[in-house]
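Morning F.,

Quick status update on the modeling queue. The single chain you submitted on Monday has been processed. Sequence for confirmation:
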Amino acid sequence: MTRRADETVLNEVSPMEIGIIGTGNIGGTLARRLKAAGHNLRIANSKGPEDVQSFANEIGALAVDVAGAVRGADAIILAIPLPAMAKLPPHLFDAVLANVPIIDTSNYYPGLRDPRIADIDGGMPESVWVSHRLSRRVIKAFNNILAYSLAEHAMPEGTPGRLAVAVAGDEGDAKQVAMALVDAVGFDPVDAGSLEESWRQQPSTPAYCCDWDAPTTRAALAAAILGADPRHEDIVRMNRGANAIDGFDPC
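Structure tokens below.
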């Protein structure tokens, strides 16, 4: 797996204009952390500015529509479900400069939340599908960490055991900005390779939502197996192991 050196990430990022579309668990938590890190935020969701106004007031952000979130932004974060990507306005990103990172935090949950997407079921990495839908290159990040971990387990740079977030993408400068933002919100950025390799951080892989540090995250990314979707019995066995009843052996 090819990676850029993690050490090239900037330790500090100048205040940026960041647009966030989606204010759910991940989007809302990122908004709080990025605002605390000194960035200027414009937040939006599919329901319009009025729906996010209260949250925007709470954290000191600007409530806008989705067009306002991307207009003039230095970085854009899409914290919305995969099906919602297809419902974004046509040409939304036409005026966005090519070097502006568009960070996709989504995951595909077929049968749980999302309708089946044939291309992804056929093996296309999730964020490659997003890139095709938006007609823009994207960076995959913040998808392999739980919202609770993002909110509660941020640590200063250099702290032993600091948790890591995988970042995959093809654009050098845009990717470096995304990695610097990971660092700014309290996590070690780990270069996970190209967008084509972003399947290594998708659900059901060793790097997905396990609260690993950076060295373990790199090992988990390398250990991922393409197309290794868990069987029903594997999920049941995993859940039984995590929720064992004292004194009871189901085997």
